[in-house]
Write a structure and sequence with these properties.
The complex is a heterodimer of chains A (197) and B (810).
Chain A: E1 8-9, E2 16-17, H1 20-30, E3 42-47, E4 50-55, H2 62-69, E5 88-91, E6 94-97, E7 109-112, H3 114-119, H4 123-130, H5 140-153, H6 159-165, H7 178-196
Parallel strand pairs in A: 3-7
Antiparallel strand pairs in A: 1-2, 3-4, 5-6, 5-7
Chain B: H1 3-12, H2 40-44, E1 60-66, E2 72-78, H3 80-84, E3 88-93, E4 119-120, E5 126-133, H4 136-145, E6 147-152, H5 159-162, E7 180-188, H6 191-197, E8 200-208, E9 220-226, E10 229-234, H7 239-248, E11 259-262, H8 280-292, E12 296-299, E13 309-310, E14 314-322, E15 328-338, H9 349-354, E16 359-367, E17 374-375, H10 382-399, H11 403-410, H12 418-427, H13 435-447, H14 449-452, E18 466-475, E19 482-490, E20 497-502, H15 510-522, E21 529-534, H16 550-573, E22 577-579, E23 582-584, E24 596-599, E25 602-605, E26 608-614, H17 615-619, H18 622-625, H19 630-633, E27 646-653, E28 666-675, E29 682-692, H20 699-718, E30 749-755, H21 772-789, E31 795-796, H22 800-806
Parallel strand pairs in B: 1-12, 8-31, 10-11, 13-17, 15-16, 20-21, 29-30
Antiparallel strand pairs in B: 1-5, 2-4, 2-6, 3-5, 7-16, 8-14, 9-10, 9-12, 14-15, 18-28, 19-20, 19-27, 22-23, 24-25, 25-26, 28-29
Helix pairs in contact in B: 1-16, 10-11, 10-21, 15-16, 20-21
The chains are: A alpha+beta (197), B alpha+beta (810).
């Protein structure tokens, strides 16, 4: 039988110690005043302005976390992996595919979903309704997030730029012609609002 | 107008084969623009709930074993390793002693199908076993651990191979005699005589490769048992069929004990919800939910959603006889179709419905191959529109004639000319209008046809590409056959209206349309009307939100609103109630219902509109309607009370297709393309849709079906093709990277126009639009590309490779 060796791992810096007392002494001196480290698999996310601390499994996608575990239904799985844009969320300002992103790699990130965009009364939601930029509605939240990310970085897009930005979002009902109309009108509302402030 | 009179009128309008004898005078809500869609905020915010979103405590996930071979039977199956995997809660095998041999598992009528087949007839078919586990990942892993001894059989992938005399059998269990399941024939006259008389004859063959529906929300469902009673969450277009089938399971569950939830539907376009086995997964989930005591959810993966395809897959053989003036004398259109699941339509129906062509012979062979089942995928008219467009345009091309001239020369119905059609219109009460000419007037101007149409292959653009323009036409259709039921209730307190009906929303904004009809009929403000979906018990509208909305359900809404209006006016002129202490006097004493009308949700006296009462005041506060009315308790003054104001109506219609109702409304479409002769790539630069929908309920919803259908049609024409490996029979592109559907960049301008001749069999003369455009547009690419390059390409989709091949470059 092999001799059992037990090692204690510093949760702050991963240094190993033979005895628990040594680890304790190390933590109290070398890491005094530092905030408590997160357990393995624990991530911090800001979603639609709210802070979360969540335990995730390494294989969980961000979509699984947000949709299945947290109950935000807007990131939809249409193509089933990486081909349709319906699961798009905005992470740190960029539209990303939540089905192709591992949740465990998202620690510290800020995420926006269509629910959050609606709750902040972004004009896109109203212009999407007005222009019927939806039919069955399954892909619509992915268009909303992609469009919002576009307007955030380009407040005055041309129709061509909009079509290019939406090139990766599939809509089987074919609502495509309505999206540029809705986005251009939302951009105008936002610019008017900004000009008025 | 008494309730009885209104009821009699409703009955009279059943089996509707004519124009409404009791039309509406003013359309203030019907046809209105800028009506806010009821589902808008929910869908834009991502809060709209779909069956895929359903999560229940303790829910398990079901996954099927699928066949790796296109034709094979299971000889032995060992599930022990899969059963031993942690997190697996059960495996349902095809040989489970509790499984019945067959059950009613989907299709239009009751069917008898094995819940889990032992023999696979196409690669990817769910067979052998269904695993339920704590997570989808574990279920997938368990499926991989199932060891199967397969006996492979010879397989067939094309109708051409399947018809060869020495071909192996594709479905020996069900079709032991051969691969030809059945042959239907339609037509009239004598084509041989027509060919003899014709000055010109042309023959050609067309092939349409397999394409599929790609519903955004994949096939899925959830089931839970509450004691002895099952509760289902369905993704399906036909909830009433599901409930009927579910009720027949487990030795019969009474209909009133089956609880169903119909959320928003992530679209299906027919497709999955029409395959015979479409309730098979739900059946297996129900068995396993009962066995494990947990809710069970099944979700197909994207490849699984490629289960089957559209029933226009196959070969078409045409022989057309015509004269030099463009008059077509005979059409022989033979269709050899792969795996259609139901009778459907051959390639001849639109010649029958739209033309004066005197001789038509259109046999349709239904042939079995080892690919998934094919069904109506927006929609079953695809073989017809393909045949109609290609024949009409080919005749024009052979004669060097404007295809519009050929259309006008042959327009008619049932082999008769326009005079005959005009008589039929008058006979059933329509005011005759020439729908094709009205559509053409709008369409030609919109696309600038007279200056753009040119001889084939004659217009090279400065960018080096060849410009082409195509035209097609046909009748406007809906599946307005079947029955729909609707009910309405005037709510207490505020007098708002709830329309009660099953939800099955696929996105065509039908619920808003029903509110417009109800508001218009009742004289209510649109804001006071709301569609309150009953997701559990009826009322069942006809296939809500799929093949027919306005055509059947629109009638039911109209009848219901008129019945309710009669009840409201009767209530306003009659004593509100009679109790032991006496009578509650009428609101409008000494008046008859016909003395009153309603506008903006207010009842008023026609002769003196200053005498009025809002609907809210009519129904009164709810406290006064209950048992504990304090005024009554203390014998105080009499307070408002009214009878409950509820109405229920229905519509039953027959004869959409079988000749009872000639088609009077037409549609025309134009397409401009640029074809790169070097790469074979096609850009669709402009499409003009003109649809005579009879009567518009919602202009934006109609336009949505036009541009939406155009995008779907363009994708089908350019690149939608399910490819199977000829040597293994394995599907090669069951995902959305390799199977392309149209993106926003695949079509440029789409210009939509509506015509309203009020010659449809729906209420107000309306007919359908949802199925039409996606079905007509694919074949239109053929004449457009011919006009660009001067070559006919008769293999669809028209890929760059096929263009280059037609140009002799590869």
């Amino acid at each position: 039988m092999e001799a059992q060796t037990s090692q204690y791992l510093c949760p702050y810096c991963s240094k190993t110690f033979e005895a628990f007392e040594d680890l304790k002494a190390h933590a109290l001196t070398a890491h005094a005043g530092e905030p408590a480290p997160l357990p393995e698999g624990m991530i911090r996310l800001t979603i639609n302005g709210d802070a979360y601390q969540i335990q995730v499994q390494p294989e969980w996608t961000l979509n699984y976390l947000i949709h299945d575990k947290m109950g935000l239904t807007s990131p939809k799985m249409f193509c089933d992996r990486g081909a349709c844009g319906s699961c798009t969320v905005i992470m740190n300002g960029r539209p990303i595919l939540s089905c192709m992103t591992l949740a465990i790699e998202c620690d510290g990130n800020t995420i926006e979903t269509a629910e959050g965009i609606a709750d902040q009364r972004h004009p896109l939601v109203e212009t999407y309704v007005k222009h019927h930029a939806m039919q069955c509605g399954y892909c619509t939240p992915g268009f909303i997030t992609t469009s919002k990310a576009l307007l955030d970085r380009n407040p005055d897009p041309t129709e061509e730029e909009i079509r290019e930005a939406l090139g990766g979002n599939l809509c089987r009902c074919g609502t495509y012609p309505q999206h540029p109309k809705a986005i251009l009108e939302a951009a105008e509302i936002l610019r008017d609002k900004e000009g008025g402030e | 107008m008494s309730v009885q009179t209104e009821y009699d009128r409703m009955i009279e309008m059943e089996d509707n084969v004519g124009f409404d004898k009791y039309p509406l005078k003013d359309f203030d809500q019907i046809g209105r623009e800028n009506v806010r869609r009821l589902d808008g905020t929910e869908k834009a915010s991502g809060r709209a709930e779909y069956t895929m979103d359903v999560q229940l405590p303790g829910m398990l996930y079901l996954k099927f074993l699928t066949s790796p071979y296109p034709h094979a039977e299971i000889k032995r199956m060992d599930t022990r390793k899969a059963e031993a995997l942690t997190g697996v809660r059960g495996i349902l095998r095809y040989d489970d002693p509790e499984l019945p041999e067959v059950a009613d598992l989907g299709g239009h009528g009751p069917t008898a199908i094995a819940p889990i087949p032992r023999v696979a007839h196409f690669e990817g078919e769910p067979v052998g076993a269904a695993v339920v586990a704590d997570t989808e990942v574990i279920a997938d892993e368990a499926v991989r651990l199932i060891q199967v001894t397969w006996e492979q059989r010879p397989f067939l992938l094309s109708v051409e191979e399947a018809l060869k005399p020495d071909a192996p059998l594709a479905h020996p269990e069900d079709f032991p005699e051969g691969n030809l399941e059945v042959e239907h024939v339609e037509g009239h006259g004598d084509v041989e005589k027509g060919f003899k008389e014709a000055e010109r004859i042309v023959e050609f063959k067309v092939t349409r490769r397999l394409h599929t529906y790609v519903s955004p929300e994949r096939p899925c469902g959830v089931v839970r048992w509450n004691g002895d009673y099952p509760e289902f969450w369905l993704k399906h277009q036909r909830p009433h069929e599901n409930k009927r089938a579910i009720s027949s399971w487990f030795g019969h569950v009474p209909m009133n004990r089956v609880e169903m939830h119909m959320f928003y539907q992530g679209a299906t376009f027919g497709g999955w919800t029409q395959f015979y086995w479409n309730q098979g997964p739900m059946y297996c989930a129900a068995v396993m939910a009962k066995r494990t005591g947990h809710p069970v959810k099944y979700v197909f993966d994207r490849r699984g959603d490629f289960y089957g395809g559209s029933m226009d897959e196959g070969d078409y053989y045409f022989k057309v006889g015509f004269n030099n003036d463009g008059r077509i004398l005979a059409v022989e259109a033979k269709g050899h179709f792969a795996n259609p699941q139901w009778e459907g339509f051959g390639p001849g129906t639109h010649f029958e419905d739209n033309t004066q062509i005197p001789n038509l012979h259109a046999p349709r062979k239904v042939i079995k191959v080892n690919k998934g089942p094919n069904t109506a995928v927006r929609c079953e008219q695809l073989p017809n529109t393909m045949a109609f467009t290609l024949v009409m345009d080919r005749v024009a091309a052979e004669l060097g004639m404007d295809p519009i001239e050929v259309a006008l020369r042959n327009d008619g119905g049932k082999g008769h000319d326009m005079a005959w059609l005009t008589e039929r219109k008058e006979e059933v009460g329509f005011t005759p209008r020439d729908s094709l000419r009205e559509c053409l007037e709008k369409g030609k101007a919109a696309v600038d046809w007279d200056s753009k149409w040119h001889p084939p292959g004659a217009k090279k653009l400065p960018n080096g590409k060849m410009h082409g323009i195509g035209f097609t036409w046909t009748h406007e259709w809906d599946d307005s056959c079947g029955s729909g039921e609707i009910s309405m209730r005037l709510e207490r307190n505020d007098g708002t209206l709830s329309i009660l009906g099953m939800r099955c929303d696929n996105g065509v904004n039908a619920e808003t349309g029903y509110c417009q009809i109800a508001a218009n009929e009742l004289g209510m403000r649109l804001d006071d009307v709301f569609y309150r979906p009953h997701t559990d018990t009826g009322f069942f509208p006809m296939c809500p939100d799929s093949s027919t909305n306005t055509g059947v359900n629109g009638w039911a809404v109209r009848h219901c609103a008129r019945l309710l209006k009669a009840k409201i006016l009767e209530a306003a002129t009659n004593p509100r109630a009679v109790t032991q202490r006496g009578m509650y006097p009428p609101h409008f004493a000494d008046m008859k219902p016909e003395d009153l009308d309603i506008k903006d949700s207010v009842i008023y006296v026609k002769a003196d509109p200053s005498q009025k009462l809002s609907l809210a005041d009519l129904v009164g506060p709810s406290a006064e309607a209950g048992p504990l009315s304090f005024h009554e308790l203390y014998g105080a003054e009499r307070h408002p009370f009214s009878v409950p104001l509820f109405a229920h109506a229905y519509q039953a219609q027959i004869g959409c297709y079988k000749g009872f109702r000639p088609k009077f409304c037409r549609q025309v479409h134009f397409m401009e393309v640029e074809v790169d002769p070097e790469t074979g790539e096609i850009d669709v630069t402009n499409v003009v849709n003109v649809n005579d929908v009879g009567k518009v309920i919602s202009p934006e919803s109609c336009a949505g079906q036009q541009y939406g259908g155009t995008y779907m049609g363009v994708g089908r024409a350019l690149f939608e093709e399910v490819v199977h490996d000829p040597s293994t029979g394995v599907m090669l592109n069951g995902n959305l990277l390799d199977y392309k559907i149209a993106t926003i960049e695949d079509c440029q301008i789409i210009d939509t126009h509506l015509v309203e001749t009020q010659q449809g069999y729906g209420p107000y003369g309306a007919t359908g639009i949802g199925e039409d455009i996606a079905t007509v547009i694919p074949a239109l690419l053929g004449p457009a590309v011919y006009n660009a390059i001067g070559k006919w390409i008769y293999e669809f989709p028209i890929t760059p490779e096929r263009v280059l091949s037609a140009l002799g470059k590869i």
